Amino acid sequence: MESAGVRAAPVTWHDVAMRDLRLLPKAHLHLHFTGSMRIRTLIELAAEQGVRLPPGLTDDVALRVPADQRGWFRFQRAYDAARAVVRTEAAMRRIIAEAAADDAAEGSRRLEIQVDPTSYAPHVGGLTPALEIVLDEARTASAATGVQVGVIVAASRTRHPLDARTLARLAALHAGDGPGEVIGFGLSNDERRGTTSDWAAAFRIARRAGLVGMPHGGELLGPDHVADVLAHLKPARIGHGVRLAEAPDLLRRVADDGIALEICPSSNVSLGVYETPEEVPLRALVDSGVQIALGADDPLLFRSRLLDQYEQARHVHGMSDTEIAALATSSMRASRASAGDVARWTAEVDAWLAAA
Ligand SMILES: [Zn+2]
User: pTM (2 decimals)?
Assistant: First the structure.
């Protein structure tokens, strides 16, 4: 029953049809290599390597930590334990192949997966082979699944900025926008680590090779940090940026400049940035007009994949199918896919919406 004085918004049949979100074409722009791993794969690789996994990593409960240094440490420890089982070329290929297959099953047309090849390099003969394995498998997986798999090489805030320059030079050698190419340059790990300007040189090297910047920012730290990232790293997209909702003026500037945000609601709640899914300011971000691509970030730890982010838009934020279709279109436009592909997929989104 409606309470007095509250008028329901007009509802069209589009809004109540509840179409299958799995069939909605979309692009997935924020997914980490190790964090994409299936639990079953983690268990099998651990057994293969004789590695004992810490308790909690393989049960069916999403990681939940406070948004402080201790919380991040717990997240990082779980992540490192998972990464430690990836010690062979076959394991690396399996992760890419399965990430593409899982994306395909959820309606993704384009996956831009980020990897820091540094951790895997010692097991496969160096940085160059580590990246080449990922790129080669991305090409194979693209052909096998129909999902275009591009790769973002991401430096880490926990390593020296000179290491980031080395990665940027390596990434530059494989720059392109297509499947199996390096489509962007990122900066990941704890936002609170290091001084952002120290990574400016690496991003400059990447930009000179035609690689756009896609660093993390604005999840664990607020809008001031995003301003720092914008000033020094000149990104085309921001990994997260969800806390820009706290600074409407800066958010408007980001929207006007065409910088897209990779919003990962499950990550925000797992890492304690927001207490509940309802608190993730998805609606405010959408209303600002900024381009948004929903992403899963680390489904291995957050137990929440790409499709779940769209389900949350519907069930937690009350978005209509028309609004959710706009989110999907936005994700494609924020990707590095060709204009032709984006136009084709956008037409598929329209068809999804038009279907009764
Ligand atoms: Zn991330």
Answer: 0.94
